[in-house]
Write a structure and sequence with these properties.
Chain A has about 80 residues and is mostly beta strands. Chain A has one helix and six strands, in the order βββαβββ. In chain A, a hairpin with a 5-residue loop joins β5 and β6. The radius of gyration of chain A is 14 Å and the shape is globular. In chain B, strands 8, 9, 10, 11, 12, 13 and 26 form a seven-stranded mixed beta sheet that branches. Chain B has a six-stranded mixed beta sheet with strand order 38-39-40-37-31-41, sandwiched between helices. In chain B, strands 43-46-47-42-45-44 form a six-stranded antiparallel beta sheet, with helices on one face. The chains are: A mainly beta (about 80), B alpha+beta (about 950). Bound molecules: zinc ion.
């Protein structure tokens, strides 16, 4: 699988670390128990387009948001997380 | 030796001037350059080459290519022995050695062929049925029996002496298959200026054209133009075995398999990862056998294979042939064989009619033409003697032959089009499956796309009696498939798994369609309704050695050496692997006979004078920016805003789930500049985590992170004489006095007359101690300079063992305690948890279960018997409780022999530990059977608990 890093170009997926679901927002300290449990533990596994965090560990060290079709592994979009 | 009696005097692509000697089952033979092992064996009249998987039936050569199910041999000898090698793909070389497999004591007399008499036991699903009961007989009796009786070749059992490489290649167009269609596609792309790679598993490019005498000239012109184009790479001996995501293709190049052994500095095989914008699949077509009873007798061959042996290798695989064909091509083969001097006994064609023009070609041969007839049984045992045929009128005819060439027509080779899950589509005209939804970027051309293929005709069903083999390699018969259907296995994927049809190393290339035909007939369904099994990577067998490539033994992963490694070698260090790092474990001296003596001496030297330890492997992260302190506040459990410039502080990080991730000391070198340290093991993980926090969680903070682990060599100088030692190195006016540079001080300074350095007054050992960091390239020199400066005081180098002993004596948590299951409170660090800020892990660390005082928490453990040796991993049980899992109260995490106390001590995690100081518990070790010990629970710090020595 190739991931087009905005800094480095298309690179093989072995250079990256996948960190999963990028749609979660870190709750405030005083948010509910449910919000924290959801953030730390619960993950959806959608069939289709999914936004994920990938870290270019063997490259530029950028955290990326990769939109990937989980059914086909097609990379639909890549942007830097920051 | 009679000099290749089945070789024609001329014709083919072999070089008759270049004779090659080879040996098969101990017999010497000769072949020619350009032969495969199979063609050379056939040229010598060798037709019995193996025994079958389950029934040990005699088997010959069925095909002329990688689809071969029968002719599997052990190639080479000794450590290079390679089992299950297809004789049809082995290029002949001088001195080649091969042996048949799965027979005992010899190929001709195989006593295990008695399995054939037991064949009722070996029907479909026999593993599940026969060996179900009693269960305990499985390991003792059935499995060894099956393993001995049913099987393939033997692995050498020795380390592979050859090298394997991995490479990447990039192109616009990857052409898979170097036949005419593939070469034409390559030429078209190359003429447009594209970068092209042509991969073909055969020794030479050309595909089927190599077996058709008339095609040679057209082929040669294409190859000349392609070879002259610098943007084209031709890769023969390379099989594309998998199509992966994003235009990545796996390919295996057999660099040296055609040589007795690889040339120096040359790999045996090379694993390619080809990254291609698009691909062209030109994998050709596969010939379908026609099943009949005993269709596995040596001498029964696919017609296309016979044509290959005749035209490419100049070999006739028999003297008297019957051609059994449902295609016009088979009639052409009969004519060609006759022209080569073979007697044609008969042509048997199951079709109702054959055009006169097609029949005309064989009139001269005088062969019987049995149209509308079918072969029902092959005759003979270890060699084919004839065939029994039922003609159009239902009369049985017995034919005499030593070669039975069979063709049920050709179907596209679709395997690679399935690799992304795409299903094939049924073509009514061709009566065949065609590529349906190939992987993105793949185009299918030539016969693989059905171009130029004749429509398939319905074949006669295999007879109800006798063994009509469908999958030769796995000994699956038509009866097995019918039985599976009767037992309720209706889905083609279920039948495949139940009968093992198509699951052998040939991926059922000659078996799948006929298996489908038998299943469809049994179900009374049409073939397209039954469906085709899904082919998955790898298309061709790939040796584990090729996948491992150079990453084996010491090269399994990179070895990282600290900058002062050479110095440690000269000091006589014994080294230990710590992750990728090689670290000095201890430094034995003459007369020291065991490691414990050495380590205890190193500890005692540090505690009484001074020692030097290379701590360069600790992770170092440079943190800069106006918000650097604010950033650290959010990633550490304790406070940083208040840390003064020139001071260091111990910090603990949690994961977001509230458990401890890592710890280390971080120093403030300027208002906006920190240098953070991590444990050796977690350096990469912590850096990735901090980048996540910065880039994803808080991108607006003005902070920059850089890993500088490799840029700085760092040495612990520890012991009461460490200040005096360092005083001889630091440049004036830097003042080492306790008041000027107190405990937890941090400074940038110069040493040795101008070398920039950083000095931290921090201590892992519990003694007065410093860590001195210098640019990595000065590491060796500075280590030597520290040794020289401390020589008067008896300085000694110490390694990771002494480091570990001293940290256990001081009760510092390390790897075994930072297990990912401990909280800061568990480790006695609860007081550090800030109540005034948010930080990673705070909220989840406050969950009731993580703050329960009854959790296993860090304690010191001291055996009551001072001579007893405590062992890490032993479990802790209260005195009154039985030693069972229900009463497990914790375990011993780390142990050391403490020279300071003169006995073994330990750290452990004990339920409610800090509330049980002074209590006695038992250490039990049932798994290893160690003796039960009585321990006293104590505070984890065994030496100088007030920390007086740190501050002197
Ligand atoms: Zn990158």
């Amino acid at each position: 699988m190739l991931i087009p890093c905005p800094h480095c170009g298309a690179r093989l997926s072995e250079e990256f670390v996948c960190h999963g679901d990028a749609t979660r927002q870190r709750p405030a300290y005083d948010a509910s128990d449910e919000a924290w449990t959801d953030y730390v533990y619960l993950r959806d596994n959608p069939a289709g387009a999914h936004r994920e965090h990938w870290y270019h560990a063997a490259g530029c060290h950028a955290w990326l948001v990769v939109t990937r079709d989980t059914r086909t592994h097609q990379i639909i979009g890549v942007e830097v997380a920051r | 030796m009679s000099g290749q009696p089945f070789r024609l005097v001329s014709g083919g692509l072999v070089d008759r001037r270049q004779s090659l000697r080879f040996r098969f089952d101990g017999q010497d033979y000769e072949g020619f350059a350009g032969d495969t092992l199979a063609s050379a064996l056939l040229a010598n009249g060798v037709r019995l080459v193996g025994r079958s998987f389950k029934y040990h039936r005699p088997r010959g050569i069925l095909t002329a290519g990688p689809e071969e199910p029968n002719a599997l041999v052990e190639l080479r000898s000794g450590a290079r022995r390679e089992p299950n090698t297809k004789a049809t793909t082995v290029e002949l070389y001088d001195g080649l050695e091969a042996a048949s497999q799965n027979r005992w004591p010899s190929l001709a007399v195989d006593l295990l062929s008695l399995n054939g008499l037991l064949s009722p036991l070996f029907v479909a699903g026999f593993y599940y049925k026969t060996f179900m009961w009693p269960a305990k007989a499985w390991e003792a009796l059935y499995e060894p029996l099956i393993r001995r009786a049913a099987g393939l070749g033997r692995a050498s059992g020795e380390a592979d002496p050859d090298a394997y490489e991995k490479s990447h290649a990039f192109c616009d167009v990857l052409v898979i298959g170097g036949g005419r269609s593939g070469l034409a596609a390559a030429l078209a792309a190359a003429r447009e200026g594209k970068r092209v790679i042509v991969a073909d598993e055969d020794t030479r490019l050309g595909g089927r054209a190599l077996t058709r005498p008339g095609d040679a000239d057209a082929l040669a012109a294409m190859l000349v133009e392609l070879a002259a184009n610098p943007r084209v790479t031709l890769m023969p001996r390379t099989s594309v075995f998998g199509v992966y995501d994003g235009g990545v293709y796996g390919a295996l190049e057999k660099v040296s398999d055609h040589l007795p052994e690889p040339a120096p500095f040359t790999p045996r095989q090379r694993l390619w990862k080809v990254i291609a914008h698009e691909s062209v699949l030109a994998a050709g077509a596969l010939e379908r056998p026609i099943p009949f009873a005993d269709n596995d007798r040596p001498g029964v061959m696919l017609a296309g294979a016979v044509a290959t042996y005749l035209h490419r290798f100049g070999v006739v695989p028999g003297r008297r042939a019957v051609v059994y064909t449902s295609t016009d091509e088979g009639w052409q083969l009969a004519a060609d064989l006759y022209a080569a001097g073979v007697t044609i006994e008969a042509i048997v064609d199951p079709r109702g009619a054959v055009a006169e023009a097609v029949q005309a070609g064989v009139v001269a041969s005088g062969a019987r033409r049995l149209i509308g007839a079918r072969v029902v049984r092959a005759l003979g045992g270890r060699a084919l003697r004839g065939a029994r045929v039922v003609d159009a009128h239902g009369q049985t005819v017995t034919l005499r032959c030593d070669l039975l060439a069979v063709s049920g027509g050709w179907t596209p080779n679709l395997a690679l089009t399935h690799h992304h899950g795409g299903k094939p589509r049924w073509d009514e005209v061709l009566q065949s499956f065609l590529p349906g939804a190939p992987p993105p970027g793949m185009r299918v051309v030539g016969r693989a796309a059905g171009e130029g293929l004749a429509p398939l005709v319905d074949l006669p069903a295999p007879p109800a009696k006798g063994k009509s083999f469908i999958d030769f390699q796995h000994d699956v018969t038509a009866a097995d498939i019918r039985l599976a259907e009767r037992e309720g296995y209706r889905s083609v994927e279920h039948v495949k798994r139940y009968t093992t049809l198509g699951m052998a190393t040939d991926q059922g290339r000659t078996a799948n369609l006929n298996g489908l035909m038998v299943l469809a007939e049994a179900r009374g369904a049409a073939i397209p309704d039954v469906g085709l099994t899904m082919a998955r990577p790898p298309y061709a067998p790939v040796a584990i050695g090729a996948l491992a490539g150079p990453h084996r033994g010491r090269d399994f992963r990179p070895t990282r050496l600290p900058a002062a490694h050479g110095w440690a070698v000269r000091q006589g260090a014994v080294f230990v692997e710590a992750g990728q790092w090689l670290r000095a474990q201890y430094f034995p001296r003459a007369g020291e006979t065991d490691w414990l003596t050495t380590v205890s001496r190193e500890v005692t030297t540090v505690r009484s004078s001074v020692g030097l330890c290379d701590v360069s492997t600790l992770g170092k992260i440079d943190v800069q920016g106006a918000d650097a302190a604010a950033f650290l506040e959010r990633v550490y459990i304790n406070g940083w805003a208040s840390l003064a410039v020139g001071r260091a502080r111990y910090g603990v990080m949690l994961r977001e789930d509230g458990f401890v991730m890592d710890d280390g000391t971080t120093a403030r070198l300027a208002a906006d500049h920190f240098i953070l340290t991590t444990t050796t093991a977690n350096a990469a993980r912590v850096f990735q985590h901090l980048e996540y926090c910065h880039q994803v969680l808080w991108p607006t903070l003005d902070v920059q992170l850089a890993s500088v682990t490799d840029q700085w060599a760092q040495f612990a100088v520890a012991g009461p004489r460490s200040r005096e030692t360092l005083a001889r190195l630091v440049d004036a006016p830097f003042d080492l006095a306790n008041e000027a540079f107190p405990y937890m001080g941090a400074a940038e300074l110069t040493i040795g007359g101008g070398l920039p350095a950083r000095l931290f007054r921090i201590s892992f050992s519990g003694e007065l101690a410093y860590e001195l960091a210098v640019p990595a390239r000065y590491g060796e020199a500075v280590a030597a300079a520290i040794m020289a400066a401390g020589a008067d005081f008896g300085i000694c180098p110490y390694g990771t063992e002494a480091l570990g002993v001293m940290r256990i004596e001081k009760g510092h948590a390390a790897g075994a305690e930072l297990s990912g299951q401990t909280t800061a409170t568990d480790l006695g660090l609860g007081r550090m948890l800030s109540k005034t800020k948010d930080f990673i892990g705070r909220r989840m660390a406050e969950r009731p279960a993580l703050t329960d005082p009854a959790r296993p928490r860090l304690v010191g453990l001291r055996p009551l018997d001072p001579a007893a040796r405590l062992r890490a991993g032993a479990h802790l049980v209260a005195l009154a409780d039985p030693a069972d899992a229900a009463h497990d109260a914790g375990y011993v995490t780390s142990v050391a022999f403490s020279p300071s106390l003169g006995q073994w001590i330990g750290l452990g995690l004990l339920a409610g530990g800090p509330d049980r100081l002074g209590e006695r518990v038992r250490a039990v070790d049932p798994v290893r059977g160690g003796p039960e010990l009585l321990l006293e629970v104590c505070a984890p710090c065994f030496v100088d608990p007030e920390g007086v020595r740190l501050r002197v």
